[in-house]
Specification:
about 525 residues; alpha+beta; 4-stranded antiparallel β-sheet; 17 helices; binds CU-O-CU linkage
Length: about 525
């Protein structure tokens, strides 16, 4: 039995026997999956600046796994109220489907040209933080509880919490029947395990971790993976079963008939950005991403947030808990403002499992590396298809670069980056690619080691996204990768396409234009 069939058995089988009467009501009322052809927000005037509740208590957001039964009930009640509102007044911006549409609209969903794309770059972290804050305030207001705080899904507490948290698997307002992951499924190794996480969390560079400005088309390490693959994993009905990576659905023309392929190709809510927020676990997933952003900032590795005023002063629009159309700026939600304005802190996972290791490699004082021209590994006027098998490109390492890499291997300053540019995907495909340097034989099951530099991923956007996705990727070289490189004659880059379960994809249309190594 595959995961989707299992979900169907649970969903349609002995529901009455498994649920109490009130849970049954919740199940019946839970609005189902919708194809968001138009997910633009209800009409509004000019936004006013959000009012922060500076009198509200500063309270911890906890792991879902650490909630007591009273807190779980409160979480369920809040989402039930939001779902009820969506049924009783579908146009209320605080209702469940409207909340889900906020996310859809902000990933180029809807046909309003004023929408923005908050994925694939430096808006990713702050936009989702603002969204979570407003969402949290609405939930608190709906149950009349100013102490309500969201909970996070710490899939990085691995493997014990790398399952959809049980409260989200129980029938009721936290359940989503359009979810692939079953109650016993664990996120496979290579996404949220300590080795994979330490590479991501060990990133130094601001752009490499957070993503670049919109002109760069550069998703940060955190967005690329674990964020993307956790979406795909949660949303995939039958990982490893062809055909995938899957085309999902997207209308061919604005107002055209949506082509819903999710049943046939197995790509459910979380696996498509346009519908991801129709699964309540979306919010627990993103609350964890938000927590890890703070963890990264506090780590000695981190170069910190951007200080660019184009980033800091950028406003995002939302409806607040009173139904007012407001804006929040990025600067409103950073560092101390997180407590002062947003009124939460993060409580660490309460677990005896080893906590995520963030590598704090001390920088040794060494000779400054020479500024050198980028080392071109591959460049093609026509897009090069990566294919489904490992794709290998290599070039001899010139002496001057080798000297610099030795400095990095010895603990010298970071700054070497591998760039892959012009990564292009049709709008109906997801992709996950592991990237290795110095491992010509890397395969989809090659473990995360010195040669692994990171994962590139794209989650299907869905609705409204009729143009190909074009991205650039950047991966920082760690000292252990440089140490490997200096022993080799050639610089070898291996791109390994994979499915969430680590297997080879049956199909991939992903292409790229350029691969090079350069110094920041
Ligand atoms: Cu807005 Cu997890 O995507």
């Amino acid at each position: 039995m595959n995961r989707r069939q299992f979900v169907n058995v649970i969903g349609q089988g002995s529901i009455g026997a498994m649920m109490g009467l009130s849970a049954m009501r919740a199940w019946a009322q839970a609005p189902g999956h919708q194809l968001p052809v138009d997910c633009s927000p209800p009409s509004h005037g000019t936004p006013t600046h959000i009012t922060f509740n500076s009198a509200a208590p500063i309270l911890p957001r906890k792991s879902v796994w650490d909630l007591d039964s009273i807190e779980i009930t409160r979480l369920q009640k809040a989402y039930q109220a939001m779902r009820d509102l969506s049924v009783s007044s579908p146009n209320d911006p605080r209702g469940w489907m409207q909340q889900a549409s906020v996310h859809c609209f902000n990933c180029s969903g809807g046909y309003d040209p004023s929408n923005v794309e908050i994925h694939g770059g430096w808006w990713f972290l702050p936009w989702h933080r603002c969204y979570l804050h407003v969402h949290e305030r609405i939930l608190g207001k709906l149950i009349n509880d100013p102490t309500f705080r969201l909970a996070y899904w710490d899939w990085d507490t691995y493997p014990t919490r790398a399952l959809v948290p049980p409260p989200f698997m129980a029938q009721g307002p936290l359940w989503d029947s359009w979810r692939g992951a079953g109650p016993a499924d664990v996120i496979p190794v290579g996404i949220t395990d300590p080795q994979s996480m330490s590479v991501v969390m060990g990133t130094h560079g601001t752009a490499a971790f957070m993503g670049g400005d919109p002109s760069q088309g550069l998703a940060g390490a955190m967005e690329s993976s674990p964020h993307g693959p956790v979406h795909i994993w949660t949303g995939e009905a039958n990982p490893g079963v062809s055909p995938e990576p899957s085309g999902c659905f997207w209308p061919t023309t604005p107002g055209g008939t949506p082509v819903d392929q999710s049943q046939t190709v197995g790509c459910l809510d979380m696996g498509v950005l346009a519908t991801a927020a129709q699964d309540p676990v979306f919010f627990a997933h993103h609350t964890n991403i938000d927590r890890l952003w703070d963890v990264w900032l506090q780590s000695p590795n981190s170069d910190g947030n951007y200080t660019d005023s184009n980033w800091l002063n950028h406003p995002f629009n939302f409806y607040d808990e009173n139904g007012n159309w407001i804006y929040i700026t990025v600067a409103d939600v950073l560092a101390q403002e997180e407590q002062d304005n947003l009124r939460y802190t993060y409580q660490q996972p309460q677990t005896s499992a080893p906590l995520m290791v963030t590598r704090a490699t001390a920088q040794v004082k060494t000779t400054k590396p020479k500024a050198l021209k980028p080392l071109l590994v591959a460049s093609t006027p026509q897009p090069t298809r990566i294919g489904t098998k490992p794709h290998v490109r290599s070039i001899a390492v010139p002496t001057a670069h080798r000297q610099n890499l030795k400095l990095l291997a010895g603990g010298g300053p970071r700054g070497y980056e591998l760039h892959i540019e012009g990564l292009t995907l049709p709008p109906n495909e997801s992709a996950i690619v592991n990237v290795f340097i110095g491992a010509p034989n890397a395969k989809s099951d090659t473990p995360v080691g010195p040669a692994f530099v990171g994962t590139f991923s794209v989650v299907v956007s869905g609705n409204g996204h009729n143009h190909p996705i074009v991205r650039n990727a950047v991966f920082e070289l760690r000292p252990e990768t440089a140490a490997l490189l200096v022993q080799q004659k050639n610089l070898t880059v291996t791109l390994v396409p994979k499915l969430v379960n680590g297997k080879e994809p049956p199909k991939s249309s992903l292409t790229y234009k350029k691969i090079y190594l350069s110094q920041r």
